[in-house]
Design a protein that fits this description.
The complex is a heterodimer of chains A (166) and B (229). By secondary structure, chain A is mainly α. Helices cover 50% and strands 0% of the residues of chain A. Classes of the chains: A mainly alpha (166), B mainly alpha (229).
């Protein structure tokens, strides 16, 4: 009876192991790193991150961020893991590429229409000039929209040679 | 491969693991000795064994592209430890939204300009007719028709590009909204949308175009407040 009580006391407070401990077949302790972020009703979430990143890597990544950011960290890792499982070659980077191309296409379209607008206003000089549409962002301004490419910047041993400031 | 005399050095992966780098080393071509930071990022996120597993599950012709995406993903995660690539995707979505709004505003303005011009042309035509009638001249018969044909001409900018943008924005909206409701049972989740976005003819990722967004993205602050999105 005492052994049973001791066993129950050492498991998680809810007596249900989290998805991680269930998968890893170990006791889910009260201070389990994974328990708050991998509930037992979402086993696939842990399975995916474990398959792609590994439980110990995930644990280290979780512990490196502030407690209030850990849920977001886990969710983003789960998203990336699922993307990598569906597309082992590109993972979630494929979506980034598609969206980036769309941004460039929209920007080109906007530039073309603005050029048309300027031509129109020049041709119809006696009419009221159009009001200038505020630029939401300027891709030529070297601001956050178009920083240096992470892709083309090699890392040196000083660890800080890639574009932008950390 | 380390030789006596130091002709060539081990790759960053083998150097880290303190083992002999053989010519057939799977990671050697992708982690040269001078890119230790890149390897450290990849190792921190994936781990060597997981990277090797991914490569072994692929055709050798796909190894280069897979490694580029792995390195990219790891570097972004190093830069943005909380959101990683998901943060980049959200930022891109936000920028697309802004661009679409701006495009719509400019198109509306252009349309107003055209209508204004057409009305101006009609009124000047009408003034010509009236003045000619007053002078006792015959009114024009065929000159008015081309003008009205121009009025009814369709605006090329209001057709398919806007439609395509709307369609794409809906897809991306689903991608954006579903990332917080990460559900394993949802077949229409973000990954399904991602494969729709890729389409059949856009299989290759052009990495030179990928420009992640550093300066505006404060991993520690901005997305905490944007959780309501």
């Amino acid at each position: 009876m005492q052994k049973k009580e001791r066993k129950m006391a050492s498991s998680s407070s809810s007596n249900f192991p989290c998805a991680a401990c269930k998968f890893l077949r170990r006791k889910c302790m009260a201070d389990c790193t994974f328990a708050p972020y991998f509930p037992p009703e979402e086993p696939q979430k842990f399975f995916n991150v474990h398959k792609i990143f590994g439980a110990s890597n995930v644990s280290k990544l979780i512990n490196e961020v502030a407690p209030h950011q850990r849920q977001d960290t886990v969710n983003s890792l789960a998203y990336e893991a699922e993307a990598r499982l569906k597309d082992p070659v590109y993972g979630c980077v494929g979506a980034i590429s598609v969206l980036q191309r769309q941004v460039m296409r929209l920007q080109r379209e906007l530039d073309a229409i603005r050029a048309d607008l300027i031509r129109y206003s020049a041709a119809c000089g006696e009419m009221q000039p159009p009001t200038t549409v505020g630029t939401c962002f300027d891709h030529n301004a070297g601001n956050s929209y178009c920083p240096d490419s992470l892709w083309n910047e090699p890392y040196g041993d000083n660890g800080g040679s890639y574009g932008g400031s950390l | 491969m380390t030789l006596k005399g130091g002709a060539t050095s081990a790759c960053a992966a083998c150097k880290y693991q303190r083992r002999k780098c053989i010519p057939e080393c799977l990671l050697g071509p992708y982690f040269p000795a001078d890119q230790t930071k890149v390897f450290q990022n990849a190792h921190k996120l994936f781990g060597v064994s997981n990277i090797v597993k991914i490569l072994r599950s692929l055709d050798p012709s796909q190894h280069a592209e897979a490694m580029r995406s792995i390195k990219y993903q790891a570097n972004v995660r190093d830069r943005f430890p909380v959101y990683g690539c998901l943060g980049v995707i959200r930022q891109l979505y936000y920028q697309i939204q802004l661009l679409e709004e701006e495009l719509h505003a400019v198109l509306t303005q252009l349309e107003m300009y055209r209508q204004q011009q057409q009305q101006h042309q009609i009124s000047s035509m009408a003034e010509d007719v009236i003045s000619q009638l007053e002078l006792g001249m015959a009114p024009p018969t065929t000159n008015a028709l081309p003008l009205f044909n121009q009025v009814t001409m369709q605006n090329p900018y209001m057709d398919s590009p806007k439609e395509n943008v709307d369609n794409n924005s809906l897809w991306i909206q689903h991608l954006f909204l579903d990332t917080n409701n990460h559900s394993n049972d949802n077949n229409d989740g973000p990954i399904a949308i991602q494969s729709e976005l890729l389409g059949d003819d856009e299989q290759e990722v052009v990495y030179d175009e990928i420009q992640p967004f550093f300066d505006s993205m404060d991993d520690r602050q901005s997305y905490i407040d944007s959780n309501s999105l």
